[in-house]
Hints:
This protein is mainly alpha-helical.
Amino acid sequence: MKTKAQGNSALSFILLIAGIVLLVAALAMDVMGTKFAGRGAMLIFGIIAFFAGLYLIPTMKHHRKIVYFIFLFPLLFTFAVTVIIPLVLGIGYSFTDWTGVKITKFVGLANYMSMFKDPAFIYSILITFVFVIINMVLINVIGFCLALLCTSSIKASGFFRAAYFLPNLIGGIVLGYIWQFVFNNVLIGMTNHISLLSQSKTALLCIVVVYLWQYGGYIMLIYITGLTQVPGDVLEAANIDGATPMQTLFQIKIPMIASTITICTFLTLTSAFKQFDVNMALTNGAGSVPNFMGAYLSNGTQMLALNIYNTAIAKNSYAVGQAKAVLFFIILAVVSLIQVRISNSKEVEL
Length: 350
């Protein structure tokens, strides 16, 4: 047994070393741009060898944990490749003159200084915050009211649930073009033949309306789930005690779905901050702002995500766009953490 254990130990060690070498070599070739057709095979064999070495380690104490890790690895690897590594590389690129293809020099904070001197970027941050606040309030109110309607004794409640949720199934780009037609052609006779999308204030209001129409049904379903979890005996006891519908709503239902409210406010907050497709399809950021920070802006409805996209793609300024994206990530993370903290404290109070 000792000889077999020693053999397994030696084999596992060899496989681990071989796997690490192949992985590092394949990744190094990819980073340096080496043209070698076998990089993919090296990466795959490296992963297989590494995990085979882990599995053959002759110790039973941690063997089950190793097996668990092997099964979790595909998910962890995918998350690292699509989220963690791009995030780290993106932060690094924001301090360089990255062109999307190559880096020639380190520029420090120059990209960050440049973006804060851009009036269009500052304005996009402001209108994004306005958009987020309006939508976070309205979507939750509308979604909750629709949920109350669909959980009441109204007939055909299943039809109404499906009807309210249906807009969420339509892609944002398609949705934007559909509503662009509505605002420019169907409703133009009600507005003195002036399109609602031609002025920045009314155009931003149009984006809010479309976003409410798209996302309200999704939030409604979450609230329906929360409301259906409220114990029926509690509602029955409140009814026997003579509680009015409003008292039942504010003193029983809302406190008992506090966790659902936290989830919905978090989802609406993050989704509104990342608004891109409807903004792009409906107005593409167009709208005049005569005087902001001493400048005339022609992109009065361009929110933060669209501004980052236009900076990187339309203006071919990838490094500055990446710096804006890093700031966007920081803002979203901080605001989300604050919102969750406040919601949790309110949840405890309720």
